[in-house]
Write a structure and sequence with these properties.
Largest interface: A-B, 43 and 42 residues
Structural class of chain A: alpha/beta
Number of strands of chain A: 7
CATH superfamily of chain A: NAD(P)-binding Rossmann-like Domain
Oligomer: homodimer
Helix content of chain A: 40-55%
CATH class of chain A: Alpha Beta
Distance between the termini of chain A: 22 Å
CATH architecture of chain A: 3-Layer(aba) Sandwich
Number of domains of chain A: 1
Largest sheet of chain A: 7 strands, parallel
CATH topology of chain A: Rossmann fold
Radius of gyration of chain A: 16 Å
Order of helices and strands of chain A: EHEEHEHEHEHHE
Chain lengths: 198, 198
């Protein structure tokens, strides 16, 4: 399949790229400052241009999203808006604009995260964003069929424990390779409206 | 208890008001164009003024939220932003600004809805908003304790079947009086971080 991979240069995107390429897929890498195609997906005009340049694809895979982390008392309306733009609206726009460019039974796979269901202190904007994304995926699935849409919702990566482990005490981490397999499952499988928890 | 009820003039707010008053509570009604105190909760400055005028309260109860309904292909980024402001950020701001004004073991009860988990066509912005709100509630609960926060997430009201029933084929409706009891449960109970499905 021809697959558009957004956030290909990141920790997760690199692992997803490796797994999809190993499965024989033709992966077009997308990033803000690296990759086959450059795009800031939080800018709708750049998303329009991205799809125009990519041509018809079989799958769109999102592996990038940004949300601020601060104690609830310090989070401002602007912080929540930044989380909404950085992880929710940017990925919704990939779907909204992508529908005409994706194959009839093609798919979208978006990135969510464990904070949708398991909160941590300083994570309320991230929780909000992940909850929004997952509910959107369930809703979009029934409207874009036979195109498909799923989310991958991992906990902290084993490979990132040094940096983020203290935020997830006692929570089992997940290997990046297993998260990447959830993307493979979404891209090559037939389900839709699913939230895969690798 | 002294309770601030936002959206008191609406279909749901009227039922919640009746149930809380019947339990002997002192309910301060809030609305954009009616009620004891006037406030457009989507405007942070008006929320600041609302809390200044209300004084210390034991509970803040939200019964108002607005999201656009359109087919996915017609929803624009502006529509998703309107849903975010109209149901998510407005209620988050009630919490963010309300914490210093609510009693130590007081509570916030926000309004979500069935579309967070059961999507319908034209409802992807509403689903997104409800999913965001519910995840925020779970996250805020662990940071504002011993203050509490819950959401009420009803399906279509029995009393609104004439107007909205066609959007919820085969889904059991819920009586407004039962939804109002979920608010009573949140306000007078001791749980936090819960999504009550009446």
């Amino acid at each position: 399949m021809k697959i558009l991979l957004i956030g290909a240069g990141g920790t997760l995107g690199t692992a997803v790229h490796k797994s999809l390429a190993a499965r024989g897929h033709d992966v077009l890498t997308v990033g803000r400052s690296s990759g086959d195609l450059r795009c800031d997906v939080s800018d709708p005009a750049q998303v329009t241009e991205l799809y125009a340049r990519a041509g018809r694809v079989d799958a769109v895979v999102g592996a990038a999203g940004h949300t601020p982390f601060k104690p609830l008392a310090e989070l401002t309306p602007e912080d929540y808006l930044a989380a909404f733009h950085g992880k929710v609206l940017s990925q919704i726009d990939l779907v909204r604009q992508g529908v005409p460019h994706v194959a009839e039974r093609g798919s979208f796979t978006l990135i969510s995260g464990v904070l949708a269901r398991e909160p941590i202190p300083t994570g309320s904007a991230a929780s909000m964003a992940n909850g929004a994304l997952e509910a959107f995926v369930r809703a979009a699935a029934i409207e874009i069929a036979p195109q498909r849409i799923n989310a991958v919702s991992p906990t902290v990566f084993t490979e990132s424990l040094d940096r983020y482990g203290d935020f997830f005490p006692g929570m089992p981490p997940v290997d990046l390779a297993d998260v990447a397999q959830a993307y493979v499952r979404s891209v090559e499988g037939a389900q839709t409206g699913q939230i895969y928890v690798p």
